[in-house]
Amino acid sequence: MATLLRSKISNVATSVSNKSQAKMSGVFARMGFQAATDEEAVGFAHCDDLDMEHRQGLQMDILKSEGGEEGGEPPLEGDIHYQRDGTGPLPPSASKDAGVCSELSGQGKPKITAWEAGWNVTNAIQGMFVLGLPYAILHGGYLGLFLIIFAAVVCCYTGKILIACLYEENEDGEIVRVRDSYVDIANACCAPRFPTLGGRIVNVAQIIELVMTCILYVVVSGNLMYNSFPNLPVSQKSWSIIATAVLLPCAFLKNLKAVSKFSLLCTLAHFVINILVIAYCLSRARDWAWDKVKFYIDVKKFPISIGIIVFSYTSQIFLPSLEGNMQNPKEFHCMMNWTHIAACILKGLFALVAYLTWADETKEVITDNLPSTIRAVVNIFLVAKALLSYPLPFFAAVEVLERSLFQDGNRAFFPNCYGGDGRLKSWGLTLRCALVVFTLLMAIYVPHFALLMGLTGSLTGAGLCFLLPSLFHLKLLWRKLLWHHVFFDVAIFVIGGICSVSGFIHSLEGLIEAFRTNAED
């Protein structure tokens, strides 16, 4: 009798313990913390993790108690698993190959401080694409500098109002977080008539920006290598093909563990490169062409510069996840302020100093203006950084495409590209390789860094950073907004829309003309 009593007490204690552990695992899983460090893709890794939770859900593996004893609660074992088909838990082998989202969103990881969050935002908005900012000053003069400041102010504001859309007031008058991601906000704005339309729009914009980022990496790699070794009988297109051959193994990636180890070194190397460029420009301060900086704009090319500047500030897509992982979310606004102020100052100084040094000879990628002895070393480092950065946006784009088209449960458009053991099918691998080849073809036929960057910034950058946050803010919090907030939101939406349409049209015209020229050649 005593033995039976002890057994029942032990079973009850085990049940309570397992249930508590399972609940805590669910809490940590919903946090979805990811310690990404690469500047152009950190945001999308965060967003993908939350997007997977939103669209596919989490399911607990609940095991029934042995013997079906009356009055006893079934023990909960195992942990939370992401579902590829939305029907059941992944097998152990599949969970290991589930990708970066499931791998990086482990349970029990500590939340990040405001400084760590600021580091992630800084990486996102101070990446290697700042190398195109002096080219924006070439076509905009002082107005280009003003636009760098204006874009920083607007992106900081829209980042804050986007986070405000995550919260609502409950019945007790408390402000609580009811949404987790950009996709959740978009879906909430389109509900109840079109409950998934907003999320699909955000996902499409995300995919376009990710793929265009991959194309830009191939373009800049070919451009830098061609200008570093002009005496070699290798064209820019050939260098792009060589770079893509190096990147082809990205199609076989199961996770980003190996690549992420180099991301911090790449970021630090980029800051060193920026310092070297500025140091060289300062050494030629006596020859600066102040008279070349004027209050004028090139009507045909300045709209492209708008897209370039906006693209360099894109970070909104991952801010909801970042804020949710902060130890003290109240510090989010302060963090956004100092990161964007720092970015504004550094970008403005870098663009102005570089333009003053080379004036009308400023090229699309500013490092191409450096002397040949310095240029080769700097460009090789930049190419290495671009090649190591390519897998992150590529893998994020693949994850979004696979979940949207092949793994979205009964709503998937195509059969699942993963087998029952969690391994990628051969035709799924073929599609990944096709995506790598697509980025190569775009880089070959449109090898214009500024045009592609301007097009992406005008299309998806302005939409994700200007238009959608202001529109969502008005839609979800209309009754609680002060008049000046309404004015700012409307003004940002109108100005952002004009800049987006203008930049997109001019960038598209330039790309079509470049495509025709390359086709004739």
Number of domains: 1
Strand content: under 5%
Please name the CATH architecture.
Answer: Up-down Bundle
| Sheet/helix structural class | mainly alpha
Relative helix content: 55-70%
Read across the widest sheet, the strand sequence of neighbours is 1-2
Q: What is the C-alpha radius of gyration, as a whole number of Å?
A: 25 Å
Pattern of helices and strands: HHEEHHHHHEEHHHHHHHHHHHH
CATH uppermost class: Mainly Alpha
Which spans of ≥5 residues are poorly predicted at pLDDT below 50? 1-6, 12-108
Overall mean pLDDT: 75
Number of strands: 4
In DSSP terms (H or I, runs of 4 or more residues), the helix count works out at: 19
Measure the end-to-end span: 92 Å
Main beta sheet: 2 strands, antiparallel
Query: What overall geometry do the principal axes of the alpha carbons give?
Result: globular
Summarize the structure.
This protein has helices spanning 2-31, 42-56, 92-96, 100-104, 114-125, 133-140, 142-164, 182-190, 197-228, 236-247, 257-283, 302-311, 319-324, 332-358, 372-389, 391-405, 426-445, 449-476, 483-520, and strands spanning 58-59, 81-82, 167-169, 175-177. The chain has 521 residues and is mainly α. It is found in: Cytoplasmic vesicle membrane; Presynapse.
